[in-house]
Amino acid sequence: MESERPTLDAVAAAAAVSKATASKVLNGRPGVGEETRARVREAIRTLGYAPTTGPRDPDPAPSVHVVFDTMVSLYALHVLDGVLSAGRELEVEVVTSALAPAGAAEPAPLGVDLIERLAQRRRSGLIVVTSQLAEEEVAACRRLGLGLVVVDPINPLDEGVVSVGATNWAGGVQATEHLLALGHRRVALAGGPVGSVPARERLHGFREAMESAGAEPGPSPAAPAAFTVEAGRDMAAGILDADEPPSAIFAASDTIAVGVLQEVRARGLSVPEDLSVVGFDDTHGALWTDPPLTTVRQPLHEMGRVATRTVMQLARGEAPDSHHVQLATRLVVRESTTRPQTSG
């Protein structure tokens, strides 16, 4: 005999609250303290409650929720533009949120609570962009049948999670080989966060190109902290203070490269005459730097489009074309690189 489905009354009893309070938590309404709200959500998880009553649309309009680590980023805006473009074509509503509002030191965790709210609101799927994902969050998406696609995953995920990114390793090779072809032999890397998968792939590409050319990497800065201008400036300071500073720096993102350019200018040096600089991303900001930045172009707009199309495939119960999509990068040469003044 099939067991009875848990009811909202059972959730309320388990959480020691009224049915009205449990309903408020279920529907995301205000007026409930955080401790009580957490207790109700724990009861929902423990009992496996799923709402079945109420005036629900039998066929809601498709909608995708996109979570960014931060929106204060040209990278994020490029990806979002691609998501919105695909959303218009597919007639899918796009809802966005950010884990780190402007000024926040660190992004908040995604949280199982958010995933459960999205499932209750009958979102078609979830796209997570450059944000940490915990195992329990991935498991919650599977348990609730919420399609999940990750763009540029920050941390390693199991093989079953669908991801969209760029050929970061190849991009690292392209950037480094460009500098080597110009005659630079001492090239330093201003890398991304230690735990970032894309940053690690760019690092490996850099090392591969240097080793293949028989060149020793330039001085390493202190452990990089973030894909930010401030981190770029701090890393550049450490690199340029070395006894034998390099003639070129490969920055793991355009924002890091902007910080490198600022530090070089503050020291009275010139780019590219005294130091060549290559970035990674090719956001609009690469055109606004002085000089315009040589960089590796990630197809960020297309990554957003592919993520949206893929999450809608999952929502329809279809298998994705690939579980791990990597779109090609290419080098864009502008004015921040040239031959070194000396052969060193």
UniProtKB/TrEMBL annotation:
InterPro entries membership: HTH_LacI (IPR000843), LacI/GalR-like_sensor (IPR046335), Lambda_DNA-bd_dom_sf (IPR010982), Peripla_BP_I (IPR028082)
Domain HTH lacI-type: 6-51
PANTHER family: LACI-RELATED TRANSCRIPTIONAL REPRESSOR, LACTOSE OPERON REPRESSOR
Organism: Haloactinospora alba
PROSITE patterns: HTH_LACI_2 (PS50932)
GO MF term list: DNA-binding transcription factor activity; transcription cis-regulatory region binding
Protein name: LacI family transcriptional regulator
Keywords of the record: DNA-binding, Transcription, Transcription regulation
Transmembrane portions of the chain: none
Pfam families named among the record's database cross-references: LacI, Peripla_BP_3
Keyword Isomerase recorded: no
SUPFAM superfamilies documented for this protein: lambda repressor-like DNA-binding domains, Periplasmic binding protein-like I
Xref: Gene3D superfamilies: 3.40.50.2300, lambda repressor-like DNA-binding domains (1.10.260.40)
